[in-house]
Amino acid sequence: MEAKTILITGGLGFIGGHFVHQYRQKHPEIKMLVVDKNTYAADRNRIAPFEGQDNFVFVEADISDAKKMKALFQQHEPTLVINFAAESHVDNSISGPAPFLTTNVTGTFNLLEAARGLWLEKPHQLRKEFNEARFYQISTDEVFGSLDEEGHFSENSNYAPNSPYSASKASADHWVRSYFHTYGLPTLISQCSNNYGPHQHQEKLIPTVIRTALSGREIPIYGDGKNKRDWLYVEDHCNAIMRVLEKANPGDSFTIGGGAERDNLTICKVILEVLDGIKPKEDGLSYQEQITFVEDRPGHDFRYAIDATKIKESLGWEPQHTIDQALQKTVVYYLEKDSKEKEA
Ligand SMILES: NC(=O)c1ccc[n+]([C@@H]2O[C@H](COP(=O)([O-])OP(=O)(O)OC[C@H]3O[C@@H](n4cnc5c(N)ncnc54)[C@H](O)[C@@H]3O)[C@@H](O)[C@H]2O)c1
Predict the structure, then answer these.
(1) The domain 5-262+298-343 is classified under which CATH number: 3.40.190.10, 3.40.50.720, 3.30.300.20, 1.20.1050.90?
(2) Is 37 in the pocket of ligand 1 (CB under 6 A)?
(3) pLDDT (tens digit per residue) in 97-128
(4) Which residues, at least 6 apart from 162, have a Cβ–Cβ distance to it below 8 Å?
(5) CA of residue 84 to ligand 1 center, whole Å
(6) What's the pTM value of the predicted model, to 2 decimals?
């Protein structure tokens, strides 16, 4: 077998794209195979710096295509698999849930099957070339449902998904878990809180706030804006994923969060204060005047918060960015992107 190969699905997306860059920087010697369907959420430019390199391969493919996944595993023999690929927007899962079942559940199942076929001699016996293999499922804290004002999600929380998106991610987690227990497939799972940072698709909260603010339109905030999320800078999440991949034992799972709980209205106001400072409006008003409360998302979870003690204590991970610094960086990125788009 050739040198080690890592397969990254969803590498043209927000978090997968950051992971591709961070992993490539740390392990330029490891062959990387990126598989992505190139959906509306993808950005092919994310991998432009690596295309054409000897040990970098991009394949445009759908993880819900079982035959294709099996063929790719047989051809490239990945020893590490990280599944970022997903339909990821809750609102889309409410208006049209079917692709969430196909990609998030069937797609994950196909990858598990392809890994089982390649890596295992028989249940609980890996072929010797795949002794160190890992199948890592990237999941979300949304699988645990909603919290009241008190408490945190941890690895011991019960699954209680409330949206078609979180139901599909929860289902995938259960499939992954079952492949560890039944077949001894060396799996890992982490459930992370809300990520933010550059290169996020414009449909998500933070890019939406910045884009609508700059366009002079109303800035839409669901309900009363009191829904709370635990925000984590995307690079910190990717560092956590690397830690888990490199140090965790098969079968393990981790909840990952930044310990930066903010409600949606507060996040929005912080962003707008940064914008007021860097790019004041010509009329002298604050961007905050544009905030408009809109009808709440059906079944909107009230609060997510993470207890990240396990990953901190057992793997020595800590987020390196404070929310204030990282949000500032994020706003600057979207501001520059907006100016470039206007110039083009
Ligand atoms: N963004 C967050 O705040 C967050 C938080 C926790 C967990 N997650 C999880 O992290 C992962 C990545 O999230 P993201 O925000 O980068 O999502 P994203 O929507 O930005 O990217 C998803 C990527 O998957 C690809 N994809 C979609 N369907 C596919 C298919 N059938 N076959 C192959 N590729 C397909 C898309 O083209 C896209 O490039 C997801 O699994 C998501 O559930 C996200």
Answers:
(1) 3.40.50.720
(2) yes
(3) 999 999 999 999 999 999 999 999 999 999 99
(4) 142, 145, 146, 299, 301
(5) 5
(6) 0.96
Name which of 87, 240, 55, 187 is nearest 34 in CA terms: 55
What does the DSSP assignment read for 109-165? HHHHHHHHHHHEEETTEE-GGGTT-EEEEEEEGGGG--B-SS--B-TTPPP---SHH
pLDDT in tens, 276-316: 999 999 999 999 999 999 998 998 989 999 999 999 999 99
In whole angstroms, give the CA distance from residue 191 to residue 144. 9
**Domain residues of the chain, as ranges?**
5-262+298-343
Q: Is 39 in the pocket of ligand 1 (CB under 6 A)?
A: yes
Give the whole-angstrom CA distance, residue 18 versus residue 200: 10
Q: Which two tokens stand for residue 329?
A: 């960086």
**Helix %, strand %, coil % for the chain, to 5?**
45, 20, 35
Rg of the Cα atoms in the chain:
20
* Residue owning the nearest CA to atom 30 of ligand 1: 62
- Strand extents, DSSP E, 30-118: 31-36, 56-60, 80-83
Candidates 77, 141, 230, 307; catalytic one: 141
Give the integer Cα–Cα distance in Å for 182 and 32. 29
Mutate to test the pocket of ligand 1, among 14, 58, 229 (most ligand atoms within 8 A of CB): 14
DSSP SS3 for 1: coil
Catalytic-labelled residue, pool 23, 136, 165, 183? 165
